[in-house]
Amino acid sequence: xxxxxxxxxxxNELKKIMKSGVLFFPGxxxxxxxxxxxxxxxxxxxxxxxxxxxxxxxxxxxxxxxxNREIIFGDDREISDIVWMGPEKxxxxxxxxxxxSETKPMSELDVALVSHLKDGEIIHHLPQHQAQIVIExxxxxxxxxxxxNNKSSKDFIRAVxxxxxxKSDEEVTEIEKALDISxxxxxxxxRATNAGTLExxxxxxxxxxxxxxxxxxxxxxxxxxNGETLHNHNHENIMQDGDLVLLDSGAESLLHYASxxxxxxxxxxxxxxxxxxxxxxxxxxxLKAIELIKPDVNYKxxxxxxxxxxxxxxxxxxxxxxxxDDAVKxxxxxxxxxxxxxxxxxxxxxxxxxxxxxxxxxDEETQRSEQFGLAYxxxxxxxHPGFVITVEPGIYFIPQLxxxxxxxxxxxxxxxxDKVAEYLDFxxxxxxxxxxxxxxxxxxxxxxxxxxxxxxxxxxxxx
Length: 463
Known about the structure:
Layout: H1 4-18, E1 22-26, E2 32-35, E3 38-39, H2 46-52, E4 60-64, E5 69-73, H3 79-85, H4 91-97, E6 102-104, H5 109-118, E7 123-124, H6 131-140, H7 154-165, H8 169-192, H9 199-213, E8 222-224, E9 244-249, E10 261-266, H10 273-292, H11 299-316, H12 324-330, H13 357-360, E11 388-391, E12 394-396, H14 399-408, H15 417-421, E13 428-430, E14 433-437, E15 442-444, H16 454-461
Parallel strand pairs: 1-7, 5-6
Antiparallel strand pairs: 1-4, 2-3, 4-5, 8-9, 9-10, 11-14, 12-13, 14-15
């Protein structure tokens, strides 16, 4: 964990923003895989980690803003648990390490919360993602589990998003530790991929590396020759010469900060000319986006600029036609680029998405579009120094989407459907890096640049 001063400062800043009320932080609990004693790998709730830093299950915390009280609730291991799990620091010792002096057993949590309610105090809670925790709210705050997230505090959400959005130097250092692992994950995959190899062999090697060097992967690894399926978690294909394979992966540092990197590379270690043509369009769009990133620029506008680069490149290849500005305005590019440019990154790979994408990526000034493709943009609002964001444009040839649009002759003034039909076996290409918004512009994070140009990728793939 960070120093106690870091967590004390974070909580003090939160109290200044919230001003009054009781702030409730349930930690995560162990989740059974197939029976109670056989659990998934534990992952602490990110907001609990941010303010209290203790990476252990079955904890909760309360900040009483009006009385300047901070309490961590939890139970020390009994001898029956120590036999199986071993000894650990007491709750009081762990609390002290993050600057909290008051602890109570978990059995007193519901009593304490009910007492606050009886005194007429407002108890603020955040949206919850873990089913067992949601169920407990009926006991803790007398809230029907179906209503827990609807009754979450919007002021509390905004306060947490405001704080967590701006990354400190020590947080950026943790993200770069995760990126050190990502560098090794990507270069390993490029070296190890061969014709005749199952995708899951590379997938397993990549995930094993993340487990061996950090806290494992920050999300389930995407590794597939079917890159046109955006979130493809199937790894059963046998790779062949001529295939492109897309690796979208990330690691967690030991303090749970995430990286998120995508590279697309040829199984044979050499791109065909057709693959180079599409790859360089995606690369040019990504480089354009990075060039434009700076404070006070809306990320939605940068997304639209990448769409214009992609549409222009596809027009040069005969796949699109007409006026490019009009094509992007009408959303014609979304046949090939049906997702947003990127998202926030931090303790969550889609940082704070559990608190509500509308609070994290949008605000009163920036509203979500209903247009296909643009509607999926996770981050659209104005950028600020300290934001860490992903930049991940792509081009995909999705046969089902093509069939659907062609049957409607949708936006045919901008799309050469006959030419697109020649690419339906192509797959997809995405290129992604993690970027820090600085006071004057931006910085591409990662101490070791991951191969990205055609020439760099081919060298990295060389057998």
